[in-house]
């Protein structure tokens, strides 16, 4: 059963600022690439298998670092998180710094990187109030605006949830956010949109399994599928957002 932390983080009502991001759907709608339930499903599946897989892999790896602080490819247990030694804390920071660099390299679009860090920063404020932990301080020491998947993984790991729950949380958010945006942007039937999310369940579980398996190895082996169209649309959205009002930041 999913833990409470991952369930709360995946809840659309969680005050992490995710509601202002459409995951590229607003730009896709403006270009006529998404206009109905069928085209939305195709968009969500493509996003899940690319950006969603990358996010899930890094969330799973971050959860492992938070919980156990493993060396590359290992999973040996370490001292309790409530009173980490300086050596373990330093090891965690080094691992998160490596994950941060690898995720940056897999996100060539500046707009996408900024969206990830903006969501990470917004979520950080909420999780520090709900689940304060010295473990999170190590992640923030690497970057004051942590990437969203790394933050989600860190919180889940610190709460004792397994890596697959962290991966499932961010993979779900990769499609649930755009799905919710579609109702506002296209006026689609919310029942039909939620049915799409349910149909994507098997694909989501496949992404989670691949992400968790990859997270057991070194960060350099984490998933790196490209999504050039999403990258280009993210950059275009920033430009268009300056020209006229858009509903979503990204």
Automatic annotation (TrEMBL):
Annotated region described as Disordered, given as residue ranges: 69-92
Any single Pfam family the record assigns to this protein: UreF
Organism domain of life: Bacteria
Keywords associated with the record: Chaperone, Nickel insertion
Protein name: Urease accessory UreF family protein
Highest classification ranks of the organism: Bacteria, Bacillati, Actinomycetota, Actinomycetes, Pseudonocardiales
């Amino acid at each position: 059963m999913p833990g409470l932390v991952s369930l709360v983080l995946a809840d659309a009502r969680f005050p992490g600022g995710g509601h202002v991001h459409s995951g590229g759907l607003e730009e896709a709608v403006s270009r006529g690439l998404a206009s109905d339930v069928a085209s939305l499903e195709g968009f969500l599946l493509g996003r899940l298998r690319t950006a969603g897989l990358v996010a899930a892999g890094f969330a799973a790896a971050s959860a492992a670092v938070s919980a156990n602080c493993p060396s590359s490819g290992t999973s040996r247990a370490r001292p309790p998180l409530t009173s980490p030694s300086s050596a373990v804390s330093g090891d965690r920071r080094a691992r998160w710094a490596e994950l941060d660099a690898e995720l940056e390299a897999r996100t060539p679009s500046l707009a996408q990187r900024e969206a990830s860090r903006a969501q990470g920063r917004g979520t950080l404020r909420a999780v520090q109030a709900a689940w304060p932990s010295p473990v999170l301080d190590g992640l923030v020491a690497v970057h004051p605006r942590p990437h969203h998947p790394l933050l989600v993984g860190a919180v889940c790991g610190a709460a004792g949830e397994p890596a697959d729950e962290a991966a499932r949380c961010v993979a779900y958010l990769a499609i649930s956010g755009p799905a919710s945006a579609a109702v506002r942007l296209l006026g689609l039937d919310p029942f039909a949109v939620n049915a799409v999310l349910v149909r994507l369940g098997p694909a989501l579980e496949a992404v989670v399994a691949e992400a968790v398996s990859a997270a057991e190895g070194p960060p350099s082996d984490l998933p790196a599928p490209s999504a050039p169209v999403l990258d280009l649309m993210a950059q275009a959205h920033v430009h268009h957002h300056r020209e006229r009002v858009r509903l979503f930041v990204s």
